[in-house]
Amino acid sequence: MHIHKYEKYWLVFGVATLVAFLIILGIGAFHQGSHPNSNKKTIDYEKVKEIAPFTNPGVHKVEGKDWDYEVVILASAFFYNPPEIEVPLGSKVKFIATSEDVIHGFEIAGTNINMMLEPGYISEYVAEINQTGEFLIVCNEYCGTGHTLMHSMLKVVDPNESK
Ligand SMILES: [Cu+2]
């Protein structure tokens, strides 16, 4: 079989591009641990308010875990429950969030905390809180007419500072 030399070049180029892409994807997934929201933790989004921990959104102190606080967040059009989160400086916080209707975002502006909240899936992120101040939490997934109004606030307080 005769293959034209330019066709051969294209075949080699195509296969090489594919291999390079798969290597980059492999390094990202297996070495750097970047994964999309997996099917690991799913939830019936229509009954989300009846399923723990979403029966009780808010900040909860926990004992005997790798983190000090669990912040349970329930997003819906167009607000977050709880509307305000307060955690002490130096704590390790696990954010546990989901949506009860459409896809919402959960981005704490000025930090690397940024999750997509999909109905039916539980999004989690553990972060060390090492800066005091007020951080705006915004929805960064367009979710409807009230999208721009959808926000919450993270307040980080220094427990050693007298109020
Ligand atoms: Cu939105």
Automatic annotation (TrEMBL):
Main subcellular localisation: other
Catalyzed reaction equations: 4 Fe(II)-[cytochrome c] + O2 + 8 H(+)(in) = 4 Fe(III)-[cytochrome c] + 2 H2O + 4 H(+)(out)
Record keywords: Copper, Membrane, Metal-binding, Oxidoreductase, Transmembrane, Transmembrane helix
Keyword Membrane: yes
Subcellular location: Cell envelope
GO cellular component: cell envelope; membrane
InterPro entries attached to this UniProt entry: CcO_II-like_C, Copper_CuA, Cupredoxin, NosZ/Cyto_c_oxidase_sub2
TM helices/strands, residue ranges: 9-30
Record GO terms (molecular function): copper ion binding; cytochrome-c oxidase activity; oxidoreductase activity
Domain Cytochrome oxidase subunit II copper A binding intervals: 55-163
Function: Subunits I and II form the functional core of the enzyme complex. Electrons originating in cytochrome c are transferred via heme a and Cu(A) to the binuclear center formed by heme a3 and Cu(B).
PANTHER family linked to this entry: CYTOCHROME C OXIDASE SUBUNIT II (PTHR42838), NITROUS-OXIDE REDUCTASE (PTHR42838:SF2)
Name listed for the protein in its UniProt record: Cytochrome aa3 subunit 2
